[in-house]
Amino acid sequence: MTEKAPSIDLAAWLQTPPGRHLLAWEQAQLDAAVADLFGFHALQLGLPELNGLQANRMTHRWQVGRDLHCEPDALPFATASLDLVLLPHALEQAADAHALLREVDRVLRPEGRLILLGLNPASLWGMRQKLGPWLGRGEPYLPRDGEFIGYWRLRDWLKLLNLEVEAARFGVYRPPLRSEAWLQRWAWVDGVGARWWPVLGAVYFIQAVKRVRGTRMIGLARNSRAAAKKAAAVALNNQHKKNDGST
């Protein structure tokens, strides 16, 4: 009987050389993405080792597990009250990823932003994790807890909730190596991979916006009516001047 490989949790794995490289890439992506997102209320759910809101300037910022404690599928926020929600690897660790995503959709306001980070099963790292037991590798390369959700599968979930993807990218193309020295030697692959096989990065970043049908159309209609009234008033005034003989 084959002995079961030992389990590695996410927190411990992030202290390894590949974990630190992944964390650095994710921090850089989040810092760039949230810096220009405005509003009043932002929430990070998952991965307390990552300070995803440090570059954001919203008035109220919370991180579950650090600033507040709650169940992921029962967030203590009113419906449509948050401007920004970050989910770094939260769906992978959730007992019910669908329930978590529905709860995030509930608390997110119309035109609010959702940012997700996840490990890509269709990558060298993902294939190493899947084929490890068949290759005689005892210890898994990635954390064993949780379920890795494919990029296209996740996009389908978001579409069902009217969460429109407005930005997406992949990162970390280095081979699944364990030592810092070897990871540094293969650093050049990150640039090549991003250009030649972009969807095969070890991690993906998705930014989506919550669209509510009719929200923008209502605003458009109001603006159109206001413009029409203004134009009618100008035309009437000009006609009045003409009848009076004014110049």
Looking at this structure, what is the CATH superfamily of the largest domain? Vaccinia Virus protein VP39
Q: Pairing-aware structural class of the strands and helices?
A: alpha/beta
- For the biggest β-sheet, the strand order reads 2-1-3-4-6-5
CATH topology of the largest domain: Rossmann fold
Tally of separate helices: 9
Terminus-to-terminus distance: 101 Å
User: Number of DSSP strands?
Assistant: 6
List unreliable stretches of 5+ residues: 1-6, 217-242
CATH architecture of the largest domain: 3-Layer(aba) Sandwich
Rg of Cα set = 24 Å
Give the biggest sheet.
Answer: 6 strands, mixed
Enzyme class: transferase
Keywords: Methyltransferase, Transferase
EC number: 2.1.1.-
Pfam family, one: Methyltransf_11
What would you say this structure looks like, in words?
This protein has 247 residues and is an alpha/beta fold. It has 2 domains: 204 residues, Rossmann fold (3-Layer(aba) Sandwich), CATH 3.40.50.150; 26 residues. The protein contains 9 helices and 6 strands; from the N terminus they run ααβββααβααβααβα. The protein has a 6-stranded mixed sheet, sandwiched between helices. The longest helix has 30 residues.
Summarize the structure.
The chain has about 250 residues and is an alpha/beta fold. It has two domains: about 10-215, Rossmann fold (3-Layer(aba) Sandwich), CATH 3.40.50.150; about 220-245. It has helices at about 10-15, 15-35, 90-95, 95-105, 125-130, 150-160, 180-185, 190-195, 215-245; strands at about 40-45, 60-65, 80-90, 110-120, 165-170, 205-210.
